[in-house]
Amino acid sequence: MFLLSERLGVIDFTVMTLPTKVGFLFRQPPLSSVRNIFTLPFDGHVWACCVALITLCGIVLYYTLRWERREDRASQKASKEVSIGDNTVIGNKRSDRMKPGPGDWADSSIKEGLVESTTIDSDRTVSWSDVVLLSLGAVCQQGSPIESHGPSGRIASLLLFVVVIFLYTSYSASIVVLLQSTTGSIRTLKDLLESPLGMGVEDIVYTRYLFKNQSEPVHKAIYNKKIAPPGTKPRFMDIGKGMEMMRKGFFAFHIEASSGYKIILETFEESEKCGITLLPYIGNTDNYLSVRKGSPYRELVTVAYRKLQERGFQQRALNRYYTNKPECTARDSSFVSVGLIDFYPAILVLVYGLMCAAGTLILELLVNKRCGMT
């Protein structure tokens, strides 16, 4: 019998027969089900340093590019003035000798086109939005229409891209590891109550009594919210159905540990044996041999069982009939499929980005329409 306070008045408990572990048996859920894994690869200080470094490189690029554009415009203006003066002198000398032919006009038009094409980028004013787009493009391994022509700007751009490559490599490797990791955050009954795991209980007489008559707040909340929510059938089920639901994941099944371990050892895949956790629901679940209150056989039974324990018979029965927790031998060799919940935060970023882009487009259309009317 279980040692309960209600039985102490009518029953004398003598010795423990066999140690029994009873509790919620479940597979630890993937880390991505309880945390946003896209923020876990780096510590908060590392994220702050990354943002500061990229911002610093962006500021250096902004002022470097503006200085380069200003110098390019000044040199182009001076070269145009020199070329116009030379063409005027040469034109006056040739005007009396010959007229330009079709080929000369073609050559001059090609030269003007080449000059214009080489000066388009230099004539464009660099803004903060261009630098932000350049920095984000570097972070996302993308290019940018803005590029530097001077050594200082190229050094800053090279530094930015090299740093981002190392960060990107470290981040990607950490994400791959985190996708295959399980969480260890479920350590108490309160954590189990607040987790997304469903719950079920093996349909035995004493479990129905124990779960219905708990007085502690967490235990009562588990029964009222997870086991028997209002308007639903209480989730007391047979051992086969409960263990199959636990095998599929996101389900905690209350069972005697040895019975559950035996089914896991016989039916679960090697990769499914990893992350198995037993969380006790009741403090003491060991079975004790009991006699009637005040029985003269109490001392006799106690001495007899103590001799069985001393001579190893009890340990022999324990090793023969009780199954230990299966070992995880395929933690690093198993293949883990990525589900929708794993990259759900990335989908949210994409959706929010599309919504912001659509809202900005509508706002631009309204502003342009209003400006056109005025």
TrEMBL record:
Annotated signal sequence range: none
Localization per record: Cell membrane
Domain of life: Eukaryota
Cellular compartments per GO CC: plasma membrane
Chief place of localization: membrane
TM region(s), chain numbering: 45-65, 158-179, 343-367
SUPFAM superfamilies per UniProt: Periplasmic binding protein-like II
Domain Ionotropic glutamate receptor C-terminal: 45-333
Record GO biological process: detection of stimulus involved in sensory perception
Cell membrane recorded as keyword: yes
UniProt entry keywords in alphabetical sequence: Cell membrane, Glycoprotein, Membrane, Receptor, Transmembrane, Transmembrane helix
Bilayer disposition of the protein: Multi-pass membrane protein
Any one GO molecular function term: ligand-gated monoatomic ion channel activity
Family from the record: Belongs to the glutamate-gated ion channel (TC 1.A.10.1) family.
Protein name: Ionotropic glutamate receptor C-terminal domain-containing protein
Organism this protein belongs to: Timema cristinae (Walking stick)
Lineage: Eukaryota, Metazoa, Ecdysozoa, Arthropoda, Hexapoda
